[in-house]
Amino acid sequence: MSSLAAPVLRRGDERSSPNVFTRVVEQVVPTVVGSVDVDALLKRIDVNALLARIEVDALLDRVDIDRLMARVDVKALLDRVDVEALMARLDLDALLAQVDLAALLERIDVAAIAERAEIGELVAQSTRDVAGSTLDLARRQLVAVDLIVLRLVHRVLHRPAEPLEAGPPSLVEPVPDAVEGEVPAATSGRVTGRYAGAASRLAEFAIDGLAVVALFGVAANVLVFSARVVLGASVDTNDSGNYWWLAGYLGWVLLYYWVSLAITGRTIGKWLVGVRVVERDGSPLRTGAAFVRVVTLPVSLASLGLGLVGIVIGNERRALHDVLAGSVVVYDWGDRPAEMPAPLTRWLNRQGALEVPPPG
Asked: Is a pLDDT exceeding 90 seen at residue 200?
């Protein structure tokens, strides 16, 4: 009887054991945990030994970084950072004192930085722009004087207020058909390709005179020095009766003007002023025409200025040597448009002086 009751009781205990276990845990665990001295327990833990037994690499391999970062609220994290308090605790003087500026600068490749920033090209471009703007400013003033002189000549000679002559047809664009609300190109103030006036031509002639003398002096000194050093010959530069110097100077003047005009249509003075010598139809000046123009220039100068009157009163502003060579002088500033000052442009527009006469 007793042997049969025991299994039955055990089966009853098994059915009732979950409830009993739960009641035991609820009563015992708080009592055990409450009696644990956590501080004393932590003091007995050897942290170094514990860390030594942890395989950090294996632990990190098991960490899912993407998942971890996805759970981080960066905005909330930054909101909790007190930047002002952080900066207040930062000693910038002490931090900078620890920086080795010499070593830092040694590691900077200044040449590579300058190359990548194209500093050399920027400086060169800025220099060209400043020089070009300054030169154009002087050229504009000369153009203004040219046009004012021409207007005064028209008044003195009692000529009608005719439009200013344009220039060779191949160099000056024709005026397009008028469109309402648009300003014709002829009244825009551009004078590129138009006949150059007296002030500009006088300025370029003066500059060329100085350039010829200066360059001849340099070339003569180089030749004298070379003769002394290479040939051992002594050249007396103070011999005023030596006509070889006069012949050399005249030959130099001829070459200076002839070669310059034959190759580019302009000399140093003409380039600075912004004018060019071309054929009457606007084509580049031929070598033969350049030679005729140079050798007949003294004729224009020796005729008591009569050979230069055409520059002021002529329709094409041609001097005697221009007529003999079949050439004209026009404004040409290279890759930039030749323009007169804006106030003068507006005044001439009101006077009707910039309108190109109709063909024929």
From this structure: yes
How many CA atoms does the CB half-sphere of 210 hold within 13 Å? 9
Of residues 204 and 62, more confidently modeled: 204
Residue 316 pLDDT exceeds 80: yes
Residue 191 has which token pair?
A: 């004078």
Token output for 71: 């759970």
Highest mean pLDDT among 106-120, 177-191, 339-353: 106-120
Looking at beta carbons, which pairs linking 217-226 to residues 24 or more positions away fall under 8 Å?
219/252, 220/245, 220/248
CA distance 254 to 9: 141
Lowest mean pLDDT among 97-106, 206-215, 265-274, 286-295: 97-106
Element (H, E) at 271: helix 268-273
| DSSP characters over 16-70 | HHHHHHHHHHHHHHHHHHHT--HHHHHHTS-HHHHHHTS-HHHHHHT--HHHHHH
Q: Which helix (H) or strand (E) holds 278?
A: strand 275-279
**Which tokens sit at 244?**
């070889």
SS3 339: strand
**Band of the pLDDT at 183, cuts 50, 70, 90?**
very low
* Domain boundaries defined on the chain: 156-351
255: nearest Cα among 282, 303, 287, 223: 287
CA distance 8 to 10: 5
Give SS3 for 94.
Answer: helix
pLDDT score for 2: 45
